[in-house]
Amino acid sequence: MRVPPLEVILAWPTPNYTNPQTQGPTLVILNAVFLAIACLFVFLRIYTRLTITKWFGLDDILILAAFVFTFAMVVVVNIGALHWGWNRHIWDIPIAWTEGSLKLAYVSKILFMLAGNCTVLSLFTFYYRLIGESSMKWFRWVLHLALAFNITTFFVFLFLQIFICIPVHAAWTFPPPADAKCMNEGPVTMAGGAVKTTVDFMVTTLPIPLVLRMKMAPSQRYAVAGLLALGYAVTAAGAIRTYYAWKVFYSTYDATWWQTPAFLACTIENDVAIICACVPALRPLLAPIFKGRFGSLFTKVKTLSKTTASKGSSFPASSGYNRTTSNAGDVEHDTVGLDTLKSSSGTKLVIQQRTSFDMHESEYKGPNDLQPVHKTNYNAF
Question: Span of the secretion signal (predicted)?
Fold first, then answer.
């Protein structure tokens, strides 16, 4: 706890414990609204996994954990606002409330870190499944490095937060024990906030190379751009949270008044991050609703490389064709391995077959509900 100097305390107004100025129920209401929206998206995600794709993965477990931690954090913050004066000026809070308020603040910071990291890990899990066995080895290494950075910094700052004071209970004891050794919470919080915001930005930016490689209609590109923009809203919330953390620890001693927008930014950041992480998993649920926009999204490209000695030459009967599909329905890979034959003229014929699937009913019921349209291109070189 940042203890104000005596001259600052003497300059404070006379305490008003009976009818103090407050910031109203803004924090509680907005926390409830954003949590409800996040809850809806998590519910739709789980419903989609269990009833449509029939698959439940590690990323779903991590999102559930993130929501549980976020829910717990919102409960703690709302209790602080309603019963411990977190929406009051610090001089209007009875000294007897100090220890209880500090305990809640200590727990809320740990819950915030756990919720945010679970969401990020869920996204990393999704990215790994998205690239599957593709040839983008460089992107896989980028994921490895980003994941290592995230896990390392998470455990470092979680350790610093838990052991901000030795003994640990000194973090909420007021006045602190004489033998307590506490770190300066300001630099730890600011550094942790900056790293968290950097990770949010990094995780939002990582899919861009994948999106740029996709062949899609302009309307679909705009939809993807909208999703990415929503991810940057998480980064913006993190930047706002970091600013108010600076305000609390370096600009004013009226911590309880200025921590209200800081805690609000924390909860919005976690809620919006959960929403962003849930959106890709809702594609099987939303595709039938927006079939005009997403109807051509189910597209596969098969590339067959064959050679012929003359017109009418036969191709090998065994092509070694293999198709793998992720259980979640997010990624589908077609692999073709053919024996290469050369003609006497050295001409190589490459046949590219593109199969597009368009939905013809308002409700998508499975692969048999798609009508294939084949386009074959022949290139000789």
Answer: none
What is the per-residue pLDDT across 199-237, written as a single tens digit (0 to 9) for each? 999 998 888 777 767 666 777 766 766 676 778 889 999
- Phi, psi of 108, deg, nearest 5: -65, -35
Cα distance between residue 27 and residue 18, in whole Å: 21
pTM for this predicted structure:
0.75
Cβ burial of 145 (10 Å; 0-12, 13-18, 19+) is: exposed
Q: How many CA atoms lie within 13 A of 305 on its CB side?
A: 10
> Quick one: which H or E segment has residue 357?
strand 348-359
d(CA 141, CA 209): 13
Enter the DSSP assignment of 7: H
CATH: 1.20.1070, 2.60.40, 3.10.450, 1.10.20. Which one for 6-286?
1.20.1070
Q: Each residue of 13-22: pLDDT tens digit?
A: 999 998 999 9
Give the span between the Cα atoms of 193 and 195, in whole angstroms. Answer: 5
In eight-state DSSP terms, residue 368 is G
